[in-house]
Structure formats: structure tokens, C-alpha cells
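Anyone else keep sequences and C-alpha cells together like this?

Example one:
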Amino acid sequence: MRSGLVNVYENEEAENVDSWTEMDSFKVCEKPPRGDETSFKIAFDPNLEPCYAALRQGVPRDSLALVVASMNKAAIWRTKQVEHTNTLGSSSTKEFYLATELKGHRGLVRDVAWAPGNIRGFDIIATACKDGFVRVFEVRTPPANGKELRSKDYTKIPDPVVVHTQKGQNGIVNSPSGIGAEIASARGGSRRENREGEVTHTSKEVAKLEANRTPVWKVGFDSDGLLLGSTGDDGKLMIWRRQPDGNWCKSSELAMARQTV
């Protein structure tokens, strides 16, 4: 991970944990200088499928999503479905794209957590930062036309967004070569600029929780995403609770007690 690359592998044989195939590889940050303090963390979306609002905007039901902390940044990455067609037939693969960035950190991001329970229609992400704050973000997928959806709009899930590509007879994706490749490279022909098939995501910091002004090392949600725990340099466990109005506040604080015998 110090290289700034994330490699994602999948296992198509659940009974054989020794067989893994690389699904995708993508760059999340520049390689940090030798000797610099580093911090990298990855957490997958624990929910069985994307929230209903994301499905409504065309996110495939089997789409994978993860939150990646790289140095002083954090971002959400999600897969899109890519259909490959050649003279022998067609096949599909998953490719990760940058969905949204979680901004506002003023230090190394030590840990990330994805809340279960996306039945609420959006996702909740928490980060632990060296600057002494626990940040909570809401990640949403707004309608493409800017109009709020009505209840009847959710009665039918639309078809997922799919990217179609053409391959040659040898199964290789047709791409420019020679001068054409150099032109494409000069124009930034990377996956970040190829936005086809990507669903718009937005993120908003909804809480900035101060953890006794000490660096935070770990965060984690309970099973329904309403309680958030954090620990830091002070050795205390902070419990934060989400209120019915969406605000987060401290619920309790646990610390080791010293007893003199």
C-alpha cells in the first residue's frame, strides 16, 4: 500500500481460500517519500447491496464499494459494470472508480469505518484522524436531473448503468497505438477521465467530534450504525450516538481505572 496502489482480489471458489484472482488495481495517492510517517486503511461496505437511492440511480446490485484512507485523505471507490464484446462472444468485469472524496482532514487518517444499515437511503462513513477529530460523513447519490424522487419512483428499480467496450479477435480491448496513444495520454486518457458508467455520489461532513484533543486511532460502528466507538492516544473509549435529528453526540466514555491495593 506504500506504493499508493490498491489491489483488489476476488475468490470465485468459497471452499478454496488459496485461489484468488486480481479483480482491479487503482492508484489512490502518490508514493510517500521514504522516511515519512504513513497511514493507509481500507474498509468494505458491509451492506449486502447498495442503498435503494443508489440502486435507483443505476448502481448495480452486485456493485462493490470501499472507503480508502491514504495519508491525509479518504475517498469512496465503487465498481461499475463493464461489458466486453468480441467476435467470440461477450463477458463482463468490474472496474473501480472514484465515487467521492471525504474532505476536511488536517492530519493522517488512521482508520475508516462504514456503517451497516443503509436502509436509511444513504451511507454513513466515519474517519479517525491524527488531528484529534472523529468525522462522520453522509454519502448520497442525488438524482441526475436534480429532482427529488417521489415514493412511486421507487416501485421499479431501473436497469444498472453498464459500459460497453469492443475487443479484437484476441480479446484485447481496442485502443490507440503509436501517435494515437501519445495523444490519448496527453489528453489524460485515464480511468478518472473516462466517466462513462459512473454514478454521481456526494459526501457531506455531518459531524466533527473532538476526542479530548488527542490523535484518534480507531473507529467502529455497532450493527445498526447508530452507535460509533473511537479510541485514541488517551486510552479512552468514546461512544457517540446518532440522534433522531441526525446529529451525533457523546453517549459515554470508558477508561481504565487505577486502584491502589
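And example two:
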Amino acid sequence: MIRKILVAAAALWATAFAVSCSSPAAESTAPATKTGAPAAAPVTPAMLEKGRGIYKTYCAPCHGESGRGDGPGAGVMKPPPRDHTDRTYMSKLTDDDLAKVIQMGGAIKGKPLMPGNPQIKGSELAALVAFTRSLSTGSGK
């Protein structure tokens, strides 16, 4: 009985999350690469803080605020959300790889439950990539 309730709650949450991900975001004026990722910019504390806020909104429900893949929605996901603190795995990904997964969803890396977030672009995407990267290097803490 409890499992049915959890599955129903997770389905409702996923639907609400998918709907919230489809709202238009403000356009950025940062130059973009072919994938929509902004041109490389130096990572600043302000950029990491901006990325932390975006991460908390879009990523933490599944990945957890610390990025360990232990967010409130993670328990019912198979496969589980990626652990962004895993330095070995994260070091294999380029910033462009991260940007593609954020925008196109986790299916391109074998994580089909992660929705795409095409509305995140420009300086917001750069900040989110920088913050996500910082979780595995300790530079954003």
C-alpha cells in the first residue's frame, strides 16, 4: 500500500516537474556554442552562487542539494540519479557534455528519467555547469 502511494506521488511529482520545466526562461546575451552552451568564462563565486540556485530548483529534487543522487525523488527511480560528487565519473565529462545532458535529458547518458531542460541556456547554463562541476571538485562549497 505504501509503495503504491509512493509510486503515485512520484508520478505526480514527475508530471509537475516536467510541466515546470517547459516554462520559458529569460534569454541570455552570452555567446553560445553549437549546443547552446555559453562560451567558456572564468568561474567566479557569483557564478557558482547563481548555479547553486538553478541546481536547487531543477536538479536537487532528484540529485539532492549536495549532488549525491539522494534527493527526495531518488528513492523510486531506477536507475538512480547520477552522483555529481563522483570525481572519477565527472572528470570524464566535458562541460559541453554536462550542458548537453542538462538541455537534452539523461537518456543520452543512460539515465532516461532525467528530463531535458532546454529553457536553461546562456549564462544560466554556464552557471549550472560550473556549479555541477564544483560538486565533484569541492570548489563550490
